[in-house]
């Protein structure tokens, strides 16, 4: 019997438009009956999913991390399994879950119908798969235009980071975990739920999207050359050993700043400090290899 799936493809994703027809053909070839709904505004995704909850067995989203993040409220509410076609620039969630980057192989993962319930991060009412952060990452997000991502792909993250790093200055923040307060002067605070973010950076050496915890780090460099020294550790997730990084792990954090600082969740600026972060264990059903 054919499974009915709601197919949501972001045509503005880096590979969205060019691979849409191929995705439809591939999914139909492995036995899916598709209902396609165009994504004109990602903010409407949750309602589209709710509207189709009684018509389909699963939801397949084609796009990048931002598109997937936009769909989360609808998936959490309906508990329809989520199939992922990684058509964006970084595709960090797909990398965390071990979903192949090629369309044909990603479709085979969806066809396998193996469901795993993964954790979600939450900050001030906004969900995130990968990372929520403030400071340097917000400046990078503001500099990552669609044209830059289309032209340079995942290299756009590194190029934009180098560009904004020169202007970055440390800011004061207070981090509270388990009632204990820690004052920091930092250029970035990042709270990770998954394993990968920012085009392949690693949240923590042992981070997993099913471990029921969040990993927080504070990046406390004050010279650009220190960033070059710590960058290899950030890619491997071994920043706990760096003299310019403080790290914590837990189920809940609070972050306060003297003036409000914008917060980026999975590549989109969605809220600001003061911030309440928490993990929601096994919140979302996803199709995995």
From TrEMBL:
It holds the Pfam family YegS_C. Belongs to the diacylglycerol/lipid kinase family. Its cofactor is Mg(2+). Residues 1-127 form the DAGKc domain. GO terms for molecular function: ATP binding; kinase activity. Keywords: ATP-binding, Kinase, Lipid biosynthesis, Lipid metabolism, Nucleotide-binding, Phospholipid biosynthesis, Phospholipid metabolism, Transferase. Signal peptide: none annotated. This is Lipid kinase. Its EC number is 2.7.1.-. PROSITE patterns: DAGK. GO terms for biological process: phospholipid biosynthetic process. It comes from the Bacteria.
